[in-house]
Records
---
Amino acid sequence: MMRIKELCMKYKHAAFLIYYPIVVLLFQALEMRNTSVSNWIWSPIDYKIPFVGAFVIPYMLWFLFMAACPSRFWAFATSRNILSSSPLFISG
């Protein structure tokens, strides 16, 4: 028991990792709900918007960018910086 307390005190900045399993479990619970009744949000103008294949690459790069920025921050930041900015990352 003392070993766990020592680890928690030493690695305080890793406490934000507890958040992710909770979010994953909540997401899975939402995915398993009954979806027999669904409401689609659309308008007739949606069918008039053309598909432009050239925008697929920037769209995919955006997701890579969104994953790389926090990862780069957490890799090179100090524990004090991580503790002060974790609420910002958790809140979205």
---
Amino acid sequence: MKTKVSLIRCNSHNSQDVYDAVKACVDLLGGISSIVRSDARVLVKPNLLAAKPPESGIDTHPEVVRAVISLVKEAGGHVQVGDSKCILCLCCHEFCPENAIFIKESIFHRIIRT
């Protein structure tokens, strides 16, 4: 089986622009309903690597996560968002593990508020 990939350029982090770009990518793959069934439980796993501003490009941008959450909900899916907790990882070496977790959880909570 070949892996399908779609790519759409998005020139801003405006919520609607990002949503439209993410939806266009998913539509090229057959639409969200071909991926998510109604009532499905879906884990959205952004990459949360460092406590940096979204524009740094280090973490998955919150607007991309928000767009994916919206699409899953539109398909009738139940969304949970998560990433592994950071314990002594290289990206957070300047923080103690508790602070790294706290920072990432703060980013995580900001992302999932829709």
